[in-house]
Design brief:
Length: 78
Amino acid sequence: MTFSPPKKASKVQTGQRHGKWLFEKVRKVKNSVVLQYDEAGNATGLAHFASPVTGQYRGRQVIKKAKSKSDKITTVRA
């Protein structure tokens, strides 16, 4: 008794199966992305991340903006 399939799957069948899996995966990823928007309605970044523009997350200031370009951004743990 062998543990192989009774007939060999063709290259087309294998490619279709693989292509369908990729299509479904891409669709799920596209539907799962949630963006955050500013007052003008423009997308500024991913939801559940601090806003790169204001440095706020859920109304709290979590990133302290640097005063000059040479200063690094420091996080505020509040």
